[in-house]
Amino acid sequence: MVALELRRAAPADLPFIRETERLPGYESVVGRWDEALHRERLADPHYAYFVGFDHGDPAGFAILRDWASAERVTLLKRVAVTRPGAGLGRALLAGLLDRVFGETEAWRLWLGVFPENLRAQRAYAAVGFRPEGVARGSAFFHGRFHDELVMAILRPEWQARQQSKGARPW
Prior knowledge:
This protein is α+β, with helices and mostly antiparallel strands. It contains five helices and seven strands. The protein is globular.
């Protein structure tokens, strides 16, 4: 797997994030916010923005909601990479799992993915997310409602994967 350095994003990373979420092919699978909303969310402690770097170059980003929440449940709101199919997504996701479960008391990390987005589903499954069911009409995107496949990973599942890889569980 590709190794990425994962860092918390800063306001200076917003042009990269906005450019990445607007890459061709992402218009129907990745949400897009304007700069003002990104700045608002970046400053909100309930959100955590991360940028993954491949040999010093930004290669992807992720936005998490409910970071370190009292409910111990975090949502992976958005993730995108600059070169889909190159292993960057899986590397970014693996790093995110380590950050979420290593830096917070989260019990559950979940996401919604469009059922037709099979590439993303494979990447999520490869790092331990499991499908849980379809939330009908839960996403309003491009002027209409879409179903989302809910996928999640729980802390004990992440810990078991860490132990099987020989890594130190948090």
